[in-house]
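Interim report, section 4.2 (structural modelling).
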Amino acid sequence: MANLAVMLGDRYFGWRGAVAGLAGLFAIPALAGLALAIGYQSLTHLPEVQGAMRGLALVVSALILTTAIKLVPALSRHPGGRLFCALSGLSTVLCVVWLKWPLLWVLLLVGTASCLWTYRRLAAPAAKAGPHA
Amino acid sequence: MNITLAWTDWLALFGHFMTLSLLAVGGGISVVPGMHRFLVAEHAWLTDPQFGSSVALAQMAPGPNVLFVALMGWNVGLNAGGTAWALLGATLCLVGIVMPSSVLTLVATRWARRHRQHPGVRAFSLGLTPLVVGLLASTAWLLLGPGVGADTPWRYWLAGLVAVGVLWKTRVHLLWVMAAGALLGGIGWI
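Predicted structure of the assembly:
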């Protein structure tokens, strides 16, 4: 969404438009978000409010997991194949959650390996590609 | 919680969010683990509940999803001394996460569009898709917080599964699901 504001602002008004697009996009929602944070802060000593936040965080976590799940069908047509996608996705989770690596390492290691493998499979002749390619 | 931040710390905060901005291949939410690592695990500028509530509350506000970083910066500033610092923190985090990727968008979008059939460009965007799925799943896990483990009641997991099902397969508005989650949490059921 932010990138869209930048592209549209730039297309019609140059770089000033891009900056204005961003500011307009963020100003009011940022105030709304801060108002929520301030309201929560003043009530955070109540156990009910802490419980409500626990429930809210669970729903937000579910929302993000759902976003991930919705990307999975696209992976079934991935040129790298399903096994590769599973390996790449799982090793990302392993490095981030379990090994607690910095994201830069994860992207450099798993990301580079994934892109190289995908490149190889894209460049390979169709006859050599596997059943899921 | 009270912390003391030197100006070099503010600079480090800004720099870290600028770096994460360039790593945000799947949007701001996909680099939440990097933010958690920096703000909670490494520097202890935010507590785990503060971190989680920043992300959760921001989802209730309208507007771009990446605004949650402003709430993180706000809470870092509050811990460091007060409202003025909070505004500084919110601004640094938001500008830090938005600016580099926006500049990159400006410069790279046209180039990438022109070359989108090139195997290198396709391999880059396709190759990172499974990573994005993994990063989002990691974020989802992290947001549950450190209090979740083997002794967590089954009702909590059940509520989480139902929430995934509803958000995935129905058109019920997110705010209703959030309200239900907050209610169940508030009465102590989960």
